[in-house]
Amino acid sequence: HVQLVESGGGSVQAGGSLTLSCTVSGTTDSTYSMGWVRQRPGQDREGVTVLYFGSGVTYYDDTVEGRFTISAGDAKNTVNLQMDHLRPEDTAVYYCAADFTGRGFQYWGQGTQVTVS
Questions:
Q1: Mean pLDDT (the chain, rounded)
Q2: In the 8-state DSSP scheme, what is residue 56?
């Protein structure tokens, strides 16, 4: 059974930084891509960033471009999200996601709260 485990959420002051991490367990298969989605209070979920492992290509939403960086972790099927220059509007639940087929995310983490004040 595939599971995604997230860590690193918390509360920071505006202008501060946080690093989120995500690890896939329950399978020996390699992910095609992994990424992060967030849900801000009262809003729909929105894509934040995606890393395509084979090519190294990344995607960033305009709201985080230049401030957030996604990268592969040290272990297989892991990914990190470095968040710098955080703003109050970045406050959200951040979800890790994984794609094993190249056709979209199939698995999601439990979410981790990020609060910026």
A1: 96
A2: -
